[in-house]
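Notebook B, p. 112. Complex prediction, attempt 2.
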Amino acid sequence: MDTPMDLRFTPAQEAFRREARAWLAANAPEPRSLPSLDTAEGFEAHRSWERAMFDERWSVVSWPEEFGGRGVGILEWLVFEEEYWRAQAPLRVSQNGVFLLAPTMFEFGTEQQQRRFLPAMASGAEIWCQGWSEPDAGSDLAGIHSRAVRSADDRGWLLTGQKTWASRGAFAEWCFGLFRTDPEAERHRGLTYFLIEMTAPGVTVRPIPQLDGETGFAEIFFDDVFVPDDQVLGGVGHGWNVAMATAGSERGLSLRSPARYCEAASRLVALYGQRLATDPAAAVHRADAVAQAWMDAEVYRLATLWTATRVLDGGSVGPEASANKIHWSETDLAIHRAALDLLGPGAELHGGGTDAPWLDGYLFALAGPIYAGTNEIQRNVVAERMLGLPRG
Amino acid sequence: MHFAFTDQQIEFRDAVRQVLLNECTTDDLRASFAAPAARTPRWETLATLGVVGASVPEAHGGLGLGLVDLVPLLEEAGRVALPEPLLDTTALAVPLLAELAVADGGPRAPLADWLVSIAAGDRAVAVGPPAPGPTPVAGADGADLYVLATDGGPDGPEIHALEPDSVTVAPVPSLDPTRRLASVQWAPGPESRLASGPVAASLVGRTADRAAVATGAELLGLSQRMITLAVDHAKARHQFGRPIGSFQAVKHLLAGAQVTLEFARPAVYGAAWSLDEGEPTASRAASVAKAYASDAATEAARVSLQVHGAIGYTWECDLHLFLKRAWALSAAWGSAAEHRARVLASLVAEA
């Protein structure tokens, strides 16, 4: 490309920013005013917010207009995310659908599937959870045992097995998951990616309380659950490749935009400033950690703009997504750990108060190095696929 | 928004990479221990390619390029641990001299002459960081021009330029013998003064910012070189009947260093753009870049040595040529911790 380096957004992108900012200022709930989305009440409150965004086409700005989006590019999406986090708007209860399944469905879904599922996903009418991990298959995802066999009428599949750690699984309407359709095939080859309605006969959900006591995720049991053929995504036996596309979104650009961390890092600096005024001796001991955490977020912002430019110029994101996942998950921890250090003995206070979000955020951040593929697995990917080291 | 180098910048970088891989081998580095010189045949090659004069204005025989253009070239200089003072001459001295040459309306001799001779490859420059009293200056042993700053006092710093016959240079041993470190004794006088007052203060500050980014760029290249050496070793070295690079304990060390490096890169590139554009946050961006690059290089050095094992701890193994430069540059123009403190001070002042 001959375009010289330029880190400024265009006037059109800045106009888009102002429009988003104005709409969020007028419509977003007060920060932290909704109950936790891991409760039944909070789940519905967050669903209503998704609907409100969808009605004005703010829920999925980067999607084509026919599915409820604005058809804007990746840079505009990053701008929207900056404004969303700046407004401290609610967590996205639909994130498994809109950020993970949707990019995969745009790539692999049939036209009918896209028409059937995407608008309902965008409006929050149907919330999705992810059915990948099993009790004996976590990091080793290709070792899953849950299976699917042809139904007697040959119009679909009967699913049997158990999935676990399904975020939003306690309340979601739909689940996307990986099942073994060919037990004879090599373990990466016999897998198929299914779209499953949670109310289908034979589905049993058992919520699992998380570290904070709320039921953020769930076990899902499948007992001869019938799934019709048109709910296979990407073809029978191609599940591994389709799932890796979803995992790429989870680790790479679409799940965790930098704005999330930049906003938290700004609040961290503000907290440092407050502590510096009230207890300077204690604050300065944490200065280095505060600066490092802020920088971690800032370089993530720059790295994302670098990657976004590459994608817009026709490049792709490969194993770098694993490096990305390590960085954002550790950044989230660094920010929250620095904040709790600044709070000192006040850090354990839970459930309300102006500083409470730091502890909740820390508990959430602790999951980051585990979900979306543990950071140890991501380091293997970086070592083998970026550095070319031999497989173990 | 377009955060990438142009095709032209990448082509220039690739050409320079090829030349340096041929003309700055580890054998060449070892040879330069014994015969240190500021200007070498390799320096002449770089001048012919336009690299030495890259930032010299076209009117004075250069290419008139900015820091964004220089950063990929400095990365290549780091990759081979280039002994010649490209960073000091081209990234620091030239922009300073070029700015003063056109200040007050017109070229002032000898600034214009100096710029012409730098672009021609006939003059290598040493740049001293502002410091109270004599301090070791990189590339000072055998330089053709010295750009130095007084540490100020009540009237702020002054910038001076001195020819070799006006300074007393005493070589100081560095762990990295290719640094040609020397202590420079000099006395500021009206004839050597290039700038004073607010002009000098601004230039000293911007030169330090440029130095942070330029040093950061060299550290990127050094880091990748050290990681690559360790990866090559981990593939070749067998223990327990397998390459040691197949062990997760080894993989995770190298992956960690590579991830840190991946995030240092856009920090350096973004800071170079901010300085070229005079962005209000450019100084902070420069500190983010240097802090990240210094930490990336320190981690890469530590990990590479560990992965090499005992052979990495020898004079015979090439690794130390890069370790020592990485250690020196990590501390030069502000350590990671100093730059983090600068970042935080700027954020708190802004809040």
